[in-house]
Amino acid sequence: GTVALELALLALGVGRGDEVIVSSRSFVASASAIVIRGAKPVFADIDPTSQNVTAENIAPL
Description:
Helices cover 38% and strands 16% of the residues. By secondary structure, it is of the alpha+beta class.
C-alpha cells in the first residue's frame, strides 16, 4: 500500500519541489505518499468513459 508508493517515489528520486500528477479519483494514500516525500500532488481529472487519467487530461497541467 502506502509504503510501496513511498518506496516507488523514493526510487524515482521524487522529493521536495517536485510535482506528481495523481488521479482525483483515488485513495488518499496516493496523495499522502507524495506529500510524505516532500513533493506536491497535482490532481488530474479522469475520463468519464474509462475512469482513468488520460494524456488529454494531464496536458493542461
